[in-house]
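We close this part of the discussion by returning to an individual protein. In the encoding step, the backbone of a single protein was reduced to a row of integers, each denoting a local shape. The sequence in question and its structure tokens are set out directly beneath this paragraph.
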Amino acid sequence: MKLGFIGLGIMGKPMAFNLLKNGYEVTVFDINETAVKEMMEQGAKAAQCPKEVAQNSEVIITMLPKSEHVKSVVLDENGVIEGASEGTIVIDMSSITPVASKEIAAKLAERGMHMLDAPVSGGEPKAIDGTLSIMVGGKEHIFEKVQPILTSVGKDIVLVGDHGCGTTAKLANQIIVNVNIAAMSEALVLAAKAGIDVEKMYQAIRGGLAGSAVLDAKVPMILERNFQAGGRIDINLKDLTNVMDTAHEIGVPLPLSSQVLEMFHALQVDGKQADDHGGLVQYYEKLAKTEVRKG
């Protein structure tokens, strides 16, 4: 099966590489020419625009920052919809709004094409080792057709429901992850200011009810002052903005999420938008005039 992959960023590039490793023929496109060249060196073919990707693919995967980018790549005059044949499947693995996802799916359906919204969780490390969690929305028969492709990039792959359900599940995921990081940051800064060994505290609590995948992923990075992004602050800010927009539309108050969103805005103003979202600890450190470090 010939695949197309559009969006070779922090997540997209290792995902496309894993598809190549699993024997798929992959045509790629990104505005970052360096990323495209790197993929060509690994055996991918390059296209000049999304339309050309679609002309050479039966299934096209998009992995892009925002709803407007996905809409442009799929629906513009040089977009996927203009180059794809009837029966083509688009798998959008970006984190966008359910409204945008349903809109794109409807426009593709008018041309006899199919779409799955299939956002991911796990960050760069799991994108690299091909063990992402994938939340899928769409028709079951289409999901079953592309499931072998998804297993090349993910481990826990669940069809949540119809169009928009995958993106909704991702919004819920982002609430849990980012509010968890905020709570963890509060605790770490309290411990550091109190003068205890934060690393030993982490070892003491990680096996109990406070333990989590977030704790294990982010505390070692924070102790090393390593804020190199696996999930950037500005991307998570975008995700929580989507969360709040969706929540307001359907009448769901989200007081914790709204507070974390404001923290991300503060960090962006402070020039930390490219840091990993574990860098949220810096917001609390600034308030408490202390720093969480090893030892």
